[in-house]
Prior knowledge:
heterotrimer, A: alpha/beta, D-Maltodextrin-Binding Protein, domain 2, 35% helix, 20% strand, C: mainly alpha, MetI-like fold, two-stranded antiparallel ribbon, 2% strand
Amino acid sequence: MANRNSRLVTSLSVVSLLMTGTAPAFAEGELNILTWEGYADASAIEPFEKETGCKVNATYVGSNDDFAPKLAAGGGVFDLISPSIDSTAPLIEAGFVEPIDTSKIAEWDNIYEKFRNSGGINKDGEVYGVPYAWGAIAFMYLKDKFETPPTSIAELWNPDLEGKVSLWDDKSALYVAARLNGDTDIYNLTDEQLDAAKKKLAEQRPLIRKYWSTAGELVDLYAAGEVWISNTWAGYQSSLLADKGIEVVEFIPEENAEGWMDSFMIVKGTPNEDCAYKFLNMAVSESGQCAVANVNGYSVANPVAAKNCMTPEQFVALHQDDPDYLDSLLLWENLGERLGDYTNAWNAVKAE
Amino acid sequence: MSEVIRIENLRKEFGDVIGVADVSLSIERGEYVTLLGPSGCGKSTLLRMIGGFEAPTSGTIWLDGEDVTDLPPNQRAVNMVFQDYALFPHMTVGQNVGYGLRVSGTPRAEIKPRVAETLSLVGLTDKADTSPAELSGGQRQRVALARAIVRHPKVLLLDEPLSALDANLREQMQVELRNLHNKVGLTFIMVTHDQSEALVMSDRVVVMRDGRVSQTGDPVSLYDAPANSYVADFIGATNLFASPVKASNGKIFVSCFGQELEIDHPAVDGVPAAERLFGFRPEKARLVRANGSVPQGNLLKGRLENVLYHGAMIRSVVVVGEGRILVDTLLDDTFDPARHAGTGDEVFVDIDPHKIMPFARDGAS
Amino acid sequence: MRLATRNRLSSGGVLSLPLVWTFLFLFIPYAILFIYSFWEKKFPTFVPAFQFGNYLELMVDPQYVRVLLRTIKIAGLVSLLSLLLAYPYAYFLVHKVKRPGVKLVLYMAVVLPLWVSYLLRAYTWKTILGTQGILNSFLVSTGILSEPSSVFLYNQTAMVVTLTYVFIPFMVMPIYAALEKIPGSLTEASRDLGMSAIQTFVRVTLPLSMPGVIAGFTMTFCLSFGDFIAPFLVGGPDGMMIANVIATQFGAALNWPLGSALALVMLVIVLTIITLSDRLQGVGRGKYA
Lengths: 352, 365, 289
């Protein structure tokens, strides 16, 4: 997950040709990667291309919803993709991606065990993804608008904040509402619980200024003084706002927060398998891990590499030292058959 | 007869351009008056000021004793037949004709018979429910007429009403328009640039030039006694030439392209004068073949350059000195083609001294 | 002989290119949508089937009708507001502006924004209507408001305003063309026949400009009906329109069959409107004689 700023523009496949004219004589192949902005940063890609001769073309997505449709449309265009952990299962199920030979990933064993064994990338004894980066769907508020720091999701239902609340325009809104209702098994809500979450969101709607869709939009909403409190991709929008001199505070509410994790997957039938493995190795190495930590401000999947390439402060700030923090997050799960119900429930809230 | 329209010192400026400079005119009830002139002479602007579509810069328009200068078109008892007929395409012929009755307070029950009556007057009884788009040009013209006369206006204005029709239809409509005028007895004011149309149709023709009236008169006097060379040239053809006046042996002579001609016109008093303009009509002259001898008469010698066939007559173009003289010969029973001169022949032009007309130089009356 | 044949062939070629284009990029995609609309959602994606479940769901689940009605309402308001603004403007341009240069500039002032990205133009309204926006600064500085109001942005009104601004050229252009086409002599004839200026407008100018009004109404309606950017940019929590729902069905829900069914319903509505508008224009249209 990365910069979803101006989803409308970037989802129209802005192809970035990262290397021009410096192709080495022993070029072995070309990798087409469908990924988030920042995940193919030049700081990691340029040395990679020099070293391996694999040329990298990155196409950026605006949302997790873009991976499956792009692959379902067929074409054999892409070699690697980087969906979030809740979107991987349908891709594996649909046969869009290939199993990965983890013995070819040098640092595989250094990756958090929680991620390596995650249901999202494992199926029938095969591994389908190489974990790359992670973070929390935290909450944040404008510091100077709150005398007592909010600690609960309930603050987003506070009538005093009418017109100052925002929530991510995503099924995640249902996860938030369900937790407020006390339903903690947010990825397996029953119909009744889903209905209750819907009602909760309908109740909240008059307080909502706008449901935010992109990182940039949320930043703009804070910057323009439209919104005081919302959920957020931890580390990302807050640092963008800090750059603008706007002080926001992130918090993990007592109802807990969702966690997300992105992993790289190999598209079935890629003719560039060699390069793909080289890229995966680079991605979880120090070079790849610190690139995403520096560019996007996300936590990374390989704490060993992180320890070597981060400053101690950054290491702590990104919770790389704190397995309990990671464990406390409700890591996204694929909703399977229930995806349609969740999506419809969220649409129904917006249709009211 | 009484006066229905009086125009006093009317002037219209369009920015820097003067449309109508200074026109005063009186029109009698029941008269058929034509405003004649080339494009840009101000005739249409004058008509549109009478209709109320242009506001005069200065001057007054009286309609039946009432000052209507500043009244909008819908408050004047005049109606206009537009050059493009201006039929409403979204209405039937009957609705078009009845349109003007709907505001004039005519009871609904009366509208229908009046429309039918007017349509029969222009011979379109069965077209009431037809769309204008389905009509021929001549039929549209008649609808436009019917629509304008159904309100019994004090004056009917016609802006180049026949210009959109082809030649045959135009002649037929000239007759019909004239008949209609006789039948309904309204005052007609028509604008045209076609001099023959003006002569055929009007009781009186107002010849205009550069925003002014050049001459007003009935067709006969305009043709026979044009007040100036402009009118002479615009109405029919005239052989014009400039010459000083010379007296000799009690006769008066002028020089036409270097050859002497006798002139005997009451307007020329015999006093030798500086250069003036003279002219004669092509049909007043006679073409004589030069059979080696010089015939009797008031003669110009020249060479036949061209013969233009006009059906009822032929027009011969004769080169005389630096100029060209036109001579029309009627193709009646007395005409013998065998005796007529051929192109390139030496010929004489014979003109009666009475038929040569003197004009003021600049054409102003 | 051979030349004639070749000419026929080449003119056939000229004609067939648009046909091939239409077939490839219009007919085939819609045919595919049509087929998909009978398929079935089945984890992880969807499977071929022939059943009417998707259409049934559109009727049974009230959210679709609700969003559809909301979309029709917004598109209708946009068209109406566009008409109310565009007609006087076009009328003013055609009848009141005498100098061709001024006329051209004023016409281009409406049309030129079409060359600017839709996104940018819609985005502008955020900076105008926002809580710290231009409108609020003006109202506060003039003392009309004591503090900035948030009622201008992120609601359906903001969407209507933005969409009106974005699509109004499509209303001005056909109305301008229709008014321009009416010969001046027609209004003069009406005045001449005793009608006042207002009566003339009602009986002559307005009916004769109806084809332009209908064309403009159709275009602005259909364009706003299919819009999905204004809800995203300036819409509030109640801003979702039908195109957004289709987008989520194709994306987030990965339910292409339902999305296809919805897209086809939308297509049918738009085609109905276009057909109706065509009929209406045919009725009101008289040929200028």
